[in-house]
Amino acid sequence: MHNNKINLLKALAILAVVSGHLEFSIIPMFPPYSFQVILFFFIAGMVFNNKYGFFEFFKKRTKSLMVPYCLYALFYLGLTILITPLIGKFWAMPVTLQNEFLMPFLTGHQIDLISPLWFVPQLFISLIVYKIFSYIKCNEVFKTSVFLLLTLAAIQLQPLRENLYILLIIRTMFSLLFIHLGYLYKNKVEGKYEIFTPKIFFAVLVLQSLLWLTNKDFTAMDGIGLSFILVWGEFDNWIVPVLTSITGIWMSLFIIEILYEKIKDWKFLHLIGQNTYHIMANHLIVFNIITYAFLALKGIPFDVKNNADIYWFYYPLKTTYFYFVTGIITTTYLGVLLKCLKGKLFLNQMHK
């Protein structure tokens, strides 16, 4: 049951990420970029297994996180080069050794079509650092306090984020707390303490409504407000990003908890949770195919898209949810297909 709940939580997390890229939130009161990426760090903490030695852990995380990332990066670099003459724009940074091998860890935006995958190298680094911290034996309250101080210090380093190496440090410092909270929840809280009571629910709603008083998401000129952009180290307040991450995580856990008996047998939701990596990697290409198809059908020059960024999509007032549903379904089953192909290749290798 615990694995099923985690899988459904992963499904909710990726739905929140994809909806955020379409500039809407699937959970009212919790705007895009206010907790979605942090929820994945929390989930990583939930499944963190401390039984492995450092080098075995490093090997496993390299295989599960970085090998697929490198394969996707290679594929999308080739695809980007291939489609450039067709669409009239090169959706990537110049191809250099630094951009292809170092930039994934610094910004993850060296190839626009897989820019959502910036999270993967960052998660890899954060988990390796967290694994090192796991060797320090001390009181959990003290360790949690240290991680909280690191998170708050990361926010204070924001003025230095133009230095990409410091930006990497900021993201790593900020994320460690939430990996640790996920680990604590799974091992110290779940099944031992009741944290989904009506009183806590209303307390979270009250706190979130107070946090909205700091929100500046009403116009583009107002700034990022309640949301924060972890990939670029952009924070609009010294404490709000921490609080809205925690309230968003709690609400996500609450949603899965109260709906679990109703949705535990929904196969497609489990497929979404099992293919979050592929959804993260491929939803932008699906969005862009839809956009260019709309432009072609309407006779609109592709330059309209090329003058904007990679997230620009056609006529959001009417098409947002079409993008969302089509993107989720397509990338989920693409992930299923890729896993089937991988399984067949593995069987062929075994029979040789």
Structure, explained:
The chain is an all-alpha fold and 352 residues long. It has helices at 2-21, 36-46, 54-87, 97-106, 119-133, 140-156, 164-189, 198-211, 240-263, 267-274, 276-298, 303-306, 316-351. The longest helix has 36 residues, at 316-351. The protein is built from 13 helices and no strands.
Task: Compile the SSE list and pairings.
Layout: H1 2-21, H2 36-46, H3 54-87, H4 97-106, H5 119-133, H6 140-156, H7 164-189, H8 198-211, H9 240-263, H10 267-274, H11 276-298, H12 303-306, H13 316-351
Helix pairs in contact: 1-2, 1-9, 1-10, 1-11, 2-7, 2-9, 3-5, 5-7, 6-7, 8-9, 11-13
Unreliable stretches (pLDDT < 50, length at least 5) are none
Structural class: mainly alpha
| Strand percent estimate | under 5%
Please report the total strand number as a whole number: 0
* Helix coverage percent: 55-70%
Mean pLDDT rating? 93
Q: What's the story with the biggest beta sheet? A: none
**What is the helix/strand order?**
HHHHHHHHHHHHH
Radius of gyration: 20 Å
Rough outline: globular
**Total DSSP helices:** 13
N→C terminal distance: 38 Å
Which key terms come to mind for this protein?
single chain, 352 residues, mainly alpha, 13 helices, globular
Brief description of this entry?
The chain has 352 residues and is mostly helical.
